[in-house]
Write a structure and sequence with these properties.
mainly alpha, three-stranded antiparallel sheet, two-stranded antiparallel ribbon, 5 strands, elongated
Length: about 210
């Protein structure tokens, strides 16, 4: 069995499988994934941290679910080769983000959006941050705040704080970041590109219109 493939399968089915695990088992899995991340990610298929994380999952699940995962990983290895590390576009790093960071931006659909947003200039965030600011978590677990939010240094644009509040950035930072950094029909450009150009009323209007949609 390829443990990388198995962990990718767990990530792909995480909303369901997580409900079958006891809190203590989830804590154990988190500890194993922390070690895996600290060692540089997925590692080799036979790497100790990967195998320990896979074992934590199997021990935490009902027997029938554990058996299904074992057989699925074995079948995937036969059809895609021993070096396969993903299932339906989900891999070990996706499971790390789900379990360790509560980051929903994983898999073949949301992963590219995550990478695009994380590619924008950003400032590192350590410790508590203003809840009105967008803070994103990367694949490595590091937290960062998109730099467009700041007028100078660490001083946020006042309108950014207002708009982020309207967008619900506290509970959906990725959706808020995507709004700021994507072309907008209302503003005619990316909203972030209007900061500092005396266009604050348009930004607020666009954000309010989104909330009323």
């Amino acid at each position: 069995m390829n443990p990388q493939v198995m962990l990718g399968a767990v990530a792909a089915d995480w909303p369901r499988l997580s409900l079958l695990m006891a809190p203590a088992a989830l804590d154990t899995l988190g500890e194993r994934l922390e070690r895996l991340r600290a060692e540089g990610g997925a590692g080799a298929p036979g790497g100790g941290a990967v195998e320990e994380a896979a074992r934590a999952v199997l021990d935490a699940l009902p027997d029938e679910e554990a058996s299904r995962l074992r057989h699925g990983a074995a079948d995937a290895g036969r059809f895609t080769g021993a070096g396969a590390a993903t299932v339906s576009g989900y891999g070990v790093q996706d499971l790390c983000m789900l379990v360790l960071d509560g980051n929903p931006m994983v898999g073949p659909v949301l992963g590219p959006v995550r990478d695009r947003l994380l590619a924008a200039p950003a400032l590192p965030v350590e410790g508590p941050a203003d809840s009105r600011l967008i803070v994103l978590t990367g694949v490595d677990g590091a937290r960062r705040a998109p730099a467009f939010q700041y007028e100078a240094g660490s001083m946020p644009w006042p309108v950014v704080l207002e708009v982020n509040d309207l967008l619900g950035a506290r509970t959906d930072p990725w959706g808020a970041a995507d709004w700021w950094l994507s072309a907008n029909a209302w503003t005619g450009t990316t909203p972030a590109g209007l900061l500092g150009r005396a266009r604050d009323p348009e930004l607020l209007g666009a954000a309010r219109a989104l909330g009323e949609w």
